[in-house]
Amino acid sequence: YLLGSSFLLATVTFICALICIPDGKSAGAFTQAIFRSNYAIIGMPLILSLFGESAFTKSAVALAFMMPLYNILAIFALTIPLHKKSGNVLKKAAKNIVKIPLIIAVFLAVPFSVFNINMPNVAASTLSYLADIAIPLALLAIGGQFTVKSLRDNMKLGISATILKIIISPLIFTLIAVLLGFRGDNLGIVFIIFGSPTAISSYIVAQGMNSDDSLAANIVLLTTVFSAFTIFIGTEVLKSLGLIL
Fold first, then answer.
1. Residues 6+ apart with CB under 8 A from 47
2. Strand pairing partners for 37?
3. Buried-most residue among 39, 73, 123, 173 (CB within 10 A)?
4. Using CA atoms, how far apart are residues 107 and 146, in angstroms rounded to an integer?
5. Is 245 in contact with 50 (CB distance < 8 Å)?
6. How much is the pTM?
7. Residue-wise pLDDT tens for the chain (245 aa)?
8. How far apart are CA 33 and CA 200, in angstroms?
9. Is the Cβ–Cβ distance between 197 and 139 less than 8 Å?
10. Cβ atoms of 29 and 206 closer than 8 Å
11. What is residue 90's predicted lDDT score, i.e. its pLDDT?
């Protein structure tokens, strides 16, 4: 359900963005912001806190399938609007995939996991420290790029994306999940995934692919701030209706 819903959300958003947003850079950044959820950093800790270890394990399994989908969809969402008139979109998308730092990092890490390679303690400790500061540094970069002028210039798209990401999207797909019979922690996972703010990595990827990184940064900032309220309200509503917990 999560994979199908995310693919549907990305497809519908992408088509609407191509029609309604003339600037290809902004169309790609807007599309990516709607379907790419900060599920690993914000969603999973919330799931653990709300539903416990069992639900956390389920969410970890879901993450293994969702992250590759997010990355693949993001490449096409950012590439097609920029090259739709020049042709060879698939070729350009493939080239962009192998250039993205996130994708490179995944491929570099795979041998260590598959062959159970242990790194020296010094290297492992250093990388662990870098991992701990990666998200704060990304947030600092986004905050450092934020200006009132950039927010004002992207106000319409930024607010539209925020409403779609943390209000309309979780409302629609949680309602469909309820109608399909999802209850308890399964329903909670669906709501948290779609209700989480836009992933910080969307800004990094947008910047690396010559997309509208300013718009991407503003959407990350807006959705992160306001999702604290929407997730709380949504969770309380679902609890009051007896659908979760």
1. 55, 56, 59, 185, 188, 189, 192
2. 198
3. 39
4. 32
5. yes
6. 0.84
7. 999 999 999 999 999 999 999 898 899 999 999 999 988 888 999 999 999 999 999 998 898 888 888 888 988 888 888 766 556 666 766 776 677 776 777 778 888 888 888 888 898 888 888 877 877 777 777 777 667 777 787 889 999 999 999 999 999 999 999 999 999 999 999 999 999 999 988 888 888 778 888 899 899 989 999 999 999 999 999 999 999 97
8. 9
9. no
10. yes
11. 67
Q: Is the Cβ–Cβ distance between 174 and 188 less than 8 Å?
A: no
Residue in the block written with tokens 């958003």? 13
Side chain identity at residue 28, one-letter code: G
